[in-house]
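User: structure tokens for this one?
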Amino acid sequence: MTRLFELDPRLFITFLPQLEDYRDKLQHKRVRSPEEGHILSTLRVSLDYVHQDYGGTLSQISNLLSHDEITFSLLYSILIPRTIFVTECPLTGEPICVRLLSATHTQFTPDDLSYYDILVESVDCVDDSQNTKQDLQNPSSRNNQARQALGRDRFGRVKRRMFLSSFKGTKKINELDAYPLKWHSQ
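Assistant:
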């Protein structure tokens, strides 16, 4: 038995520019493998469907983005994983860049509270204090050797959760707590 699965159309809308770029690259390729030909025909059908059935939503998104604005209901369209975002450092308050890893829309029915739970990653100083006792007991450990060579702290990838709370009406994208770098004023 073949199981069919359904994709949320918002996923297509979110990745529409990348899907259209990929389609264009395949179309302009002089020689395509049979697999690429199949992918191209599938992409064409999928993109035609999205444009026909969600044309109004796409127009609304395009209009808002042309004014550097977004609504909460269309926020998903700019929450593209692996995109570089600007946010504020929780310690210094200075702007920092992070990479968006994921975004999940959450809604609580009783209070009608809605938000996006986003997971971001950046490179930052990592405190290894929880490993210190273990490393001190083993002087030949790599962590201990690195700490002695570079000092107590080291740099590494740091993941952090953030929440983008719902808002009414439109909002300038660069006024969000985290937003794609391309909308930064500088």
